[in-house]
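hi! just following up on the protien thing from before. the input was this:
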Amino acid sequence: MENGAAESRQRIYGKNAMIFFQGDKADHALRIVQGVVRLCLYLPDGQRVVAGFAFPGDLIGFDHIHYAVTAEAVTAALLLEQLPTENGRNEEVRLLSGALNQANIALAVRSRRHARARVAAFLIALVDRGLGCQFRLPVPLADLADHLGLTVHTISRTLAELRRRNVIHLARGRQLTIPQIDQLRAIANDDGELQDAWNGKRQPLQLSGMTH
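and the predicted 3d structure came back as:
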């Protein structure tokens, strides 16, 4: 084993399989190698809140005593159980820093006032993770709705609106293309003037390529 590495072993999970439960003893962390994982909070009344998603390269389960969330495989997933060695601390810190950054992004996404801004911010976050402007939406709409604090109907309506305005193209199988990344960023930034224009409160902005 190379210096600075951490001992690890592979763990494979099927689609929708439970990885660990909220409240279980946190005895190891897991790094995502393949697949997508959702991180959920289950409230006392049974309501599910999708706190975020983990993608390849992310670290999950880095909790002090007990897991704060439940982790479930959105797709079939390959994970590495991280068993840190004394020489693996720098890598451990790097992964933890990335996990905290993704948590902050999730909070920022949910802070948007408008549904379209929340959806746009989530799509921009995927672009910024390196997926580019053409990718398959990696999570089901039901998970996305729970994550953004919206309904599936609102998510579908918002995506349809973005598609009508040519900000995105959405094909079968959740294949998504973003031809107008600047407009999508403006929407994600909760641009008040743009939101008012879309809501019909003032003359629409002259955004190239957008239909009115």
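Confidence is low (pLDDT under 50) at residues 1-5, 201-212.
The helical segments are 89-110, 115-131, 141-148, 152-164, 181-188, 192-198.
cheers
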